Amino acid sequence: MKFAAAPKFALPAVLVFAFALTGCGFLNSSSPAVTAGNWSFIATSTVTPSQISHLGGSLAISGSNVSSTMHSDLPCYDVSAPFSFGGTLQNKQITFTSPANASGQVVTVIASVASPTAITGSYTVTAGGGCPADQGTITAARVPSMNGTWTAPIVGSGGSNVTLSMALTQASTASADGTYALTGNLTYANSTCSLSGTVTNSYLAGTMLVINGATLETDSSSGDFEIPDALLNNSSAPTSFKGTYSVVNSANCAGDTDTPTFTKQ
User: What is the pLDDT of residues 160-210, one digit of tens each?
Assistant: First the structure.
């Protein structure tokens, strides 16, 4: 999976979600069946057992109306622009609909609400545009805020004992494209390349992350790095994320790469 570093996520194919949300007595009649916010859907294929795909983005509820703006890395789906779809909430049941994509592919998700922040069910993908049909199970959860400090060793980028710490702040509301902006400060330890920096043009959609950083180098010049393909380890209670760290611009370490795991402190 590869996300573009500068543009936001995209999905030319449109998905149709039909959520059959069952009432289990955990909510009163005036409460929404699901809690609005950043949601992650993880699809595990039973056709291709090793295939695990992600959908993620914002979900909002206003009265009986439900709206979502999400992104996906399902096979044959390009992660480069958002897609939107809406639905209605009635008696703890939600139905999302949107037009099919140019290839005629349609994804259907039928799921039940286990709690206001958790959904489980199944999905199907119709064949189209040379892409095969697919089906499997799906689990979804509301993803909590990433606010906090995340730290990882960066091997081979300015030394053998380099540590990068990111003090991240997540936007409380989604951007128009369904992503949640990330800002913050960077601190390097034991690096001959970078001293500090700031998080720029970074965002979260479900458990999918893109992080870009502008750095102050040890020779007082400027540098840049990107992590365009990171994933949180857990939807409902993330404690780490892993992605490809690549130095884009640096006086001493340009071109250095690593696949660190950042752990929440």
Answer: 789 999 999 999 999 999 999 999 999 999 998 999 999 999 999 999 999
pTM for the predicted model, two decimal places: 0.85
**In the 3-class helix/strand/coil scheme, how is the chain assigned residue by residue?**
CCCCCCCCCCCCCCCCCEECCCCCCCCCCCCCCCCCEEEEEEEEECCCCCCEEEEEEEEEEECCEEEEEEEECCCCCCCCCCEEEEEEEECCEEEEECCCCCCCCCEEEEEEEEECCEEEEEEEECCECCECCEEEEEEEEECCCCCEEEEEEECCCCCCCEEEEEEEEECCCCCCCCCEEEEEEEEEECCCCEEEEEEEEEEEECCEEEEEEEEEECCCCEEEEEEEEEEECCCCCCCEEECCEEEEECCCCCCCEECCEEEEC
Residues facing residue 245 across a β-bridge:
258
Strands 107-115 and 118-125: antiparallel
Which option is the CATH number for 18-142: 2.30.130.10, 2.40.128.120, 3.40.50.720, 3.30.70.141?
A: 2.40.128.120
Could you count the other beta carbons within 10 Å of the beta carbon of residue 95?
A: 16
CA distance 3 to 58: 18
Question: Measuring CA to CA, how many Å separate 23 from each of 94, 148, 174, 259?
Answer: 12, 35, 28, 43
- Residue 2: CB atoms within 10 Å: 9
Amino acid identity of residue 141, one-letter, is A
